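Reviewers of the previous submission asked for a worked example of the structure-prediction workflow described in the proposal, so we include one complete record here. The input consisted solely of the amino acid sequence. No template or homolog information was supplied to the procedure at any stage.
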Amino acid sequence: MSDRYVYAVRKNEDTGNIEECYVHRKTDRYFLSKELAKSYVATQSSVLDKMSIIFGLMLKNTYYTMVFNPSKGKFEEGAKIHHYREGFIRTDGNDTEGDNLENIMEI
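From that input alone, the workflow returned the following structure tokens.
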């Protein structure tokens, strides 16, 4: 099993659903600012399509969001991600069909 953070997503412009997730291992927690995170996207992160995240969840990998806290000026662990029905990932408990990772950064 593996704990990972999803700290940014790229959405489909037409549907608004998530297509790709920017992920790093939970042990790599050292973001200091939003600017550092953006440079990390280009150099260190893994980019996974949404179905890879869902497959990982089915294999008992754990994914959390990582969201930027402007009052502290750094990223913090957010909510646990789960998959819902066929092809959606969410952090909330409602039954709405669609992706919802709340306040995650979009690229």
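The mean pLDDT is 78. We consider this example representative of the routine output the project will generate in years two and three.
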